[in-house]
């Protein structure tokens, strides 16, 4: 896979063999279920398979460079046909009820046996049986795992069980059920597989942690991302974005195409290093050992999350495998640096003369680490390291993926790009953006909201049930592994008009910022409930600032001959071959002299022009040929 995962949430999801299952070839067959959408009540009848095949709903692949990705579309159509044929449909345990009834007629011992059989074979039934699909690892392997889940959702509904071999997963795409798991009964669910996969890198950091550890750490970390801190970060976002602009400027001069996905990854790594523990990776400028170590670690987490065989657990092999040795060395290097940063920061806190309060911030080092230490956070060094590492990964991959898919979408929707550029021209001055500017970048914010709807990062959240529960009308037992598909929720045709269309206008500029509450859990790019993302405001500002600054200075087009843009996972959605773009400087508006300009000569006798009324407006053609209103300041 191209780039590291964002274990933030769904990382592992993709991770588990379950993914592969969904993508897999299927063996059990029986009558296919009716082609309905939605779970429980209010089901919506789907169009026949043949017409769905041509429907945009099935165009889940992104197509780039040279045009539509015919290959992926064909695969999707084939998968739809296979689902329709009932290939994925599991035999329901229809035999269970009659057998149990006969046993029960044999008196108390028979009743006991019937009870046991029901428990062992199917669980005690407190409601209707869950729709079931069956798969095996294989045929659709390599495809982004959440794509087949979408087709299965349209067929089997908002909650269904996906079986493969002895394992099974519940796939949730129903907003009410998602709300139940994430918010209303969140105590009954843990991070399950996710915590197991990420243990080697995040330990008991905030994302994988459960129970008391999570409660204590969340209470310590959330206050660190207070309003004043996030506002201070806007300068950091601007600085890092400016560094990226300089890189792009050079590429534009040299006539070189750029691979934007890796550049966005570097941009967000530089940002998050400073923001979390005041470390300048400066990965936009050059590769050094620590940057390499971060990527080795992230790639390993991604590999673990998608590998069907946990080779890293095999005794002896795990110690001698060159790959594992490299990972261990990378982790050791990062841990040493984190230990040093913690020690330096402790010294700074000891020496400083600042009173700790709610919006405490050290101007020289406003990092989260500094806040935590100054707050007197009573925590072991290992836990602190786990938390820092968790935030580094969580805040890096997600934002990079959001920017990547936003720019991909912008290249496909030039009308949106024009509006975006017009807003950036109107709002941003020559300096770095301020909080006031960010508040005025309303359309840019809607573009990010909409990009997150179409490409949620991560596309799936993972949970495990800690007790018996009801998911809608369906009873489930303790220990069920659950994938909540954000992808499916965000593209459900029952909830969204033109679900596949990138349409930032669907969110009114003067309306509230869309979130899980006002969208009734049909839109949850930052999750929901007590485990909602702690960095939502940070990430929104970061991506808004970067997008506005980049589009103000450049036009972006898919590079001629670039490979088609296809999706793959990690935890976030990556491209398979990068996002190769041609970047051109936007044409600067001409300086139009007006009558009020006067020529003055300075004491040395040289002349310069000054403007008594210094602003005129020119309408210029941008690279796309669209007209943009630009305000020009004269010198
Ligand atoms: C656009 C960028 C981001 C997106 C889309 C995003 C998305 C998410 C989502 C969906 C969750 C919920 C996971 C779950 O319920 O399983 C989450 C949790 C989390 N995110 Fe983010 N995130 C982003 C940026 C950030 C940043 C910048 C930080 C840190 C500064 C961060 C730190 C965290 C942490 C610590 C959690 C775990 C919270 C908990 O379990 O209590 N995220 N994120």
UniProtKB/TrEMBL annotation:
GO terms for biological process: xanthophyll biosynthetic process. PROSITE patterns: CYTOCHROME_P450. Belongs to the cytochrome P450 family. Gene3D superfamilies: Cytochrome P450. It comes from the Eukaryota. Keywords: Heme, Iron, Membrane, Metal-binding, Monooxygenase, Oxidoreductase, Transmembrane, Transmembrane helix. This is Cytochrome P450. InterPro entries: Cyt_P450 (IPR001128), Cyt_P450_CS (IPR017972), Cyt_P450_E_grp-I (IPR002401), Cyt_P450_sf (IPR036396), Cytochrome_P450_Monoox (IPR050196). The keyword Transmembrane applies. GO terms for molecular function: beta-carotene 3-hydroxylase activity; heme binding; iron ion binding; oxidoreductase activity, acting on paired donors, with incorporation or reduction of molecular oxygen. SUPFAM superfamilies: Cytochrome P450. Residues 49-69 are annotated as: Disordered. Heme binds at residue 533. It comes from Triticum aestivum (Wheat). Its cofactor is heme. Pfam families: p450. PANTHER family: CYTOCHROME P450 FAMILY 4, PROTEIN LUTEIN DEFICIENT 5, CHLOROPLASTIC.
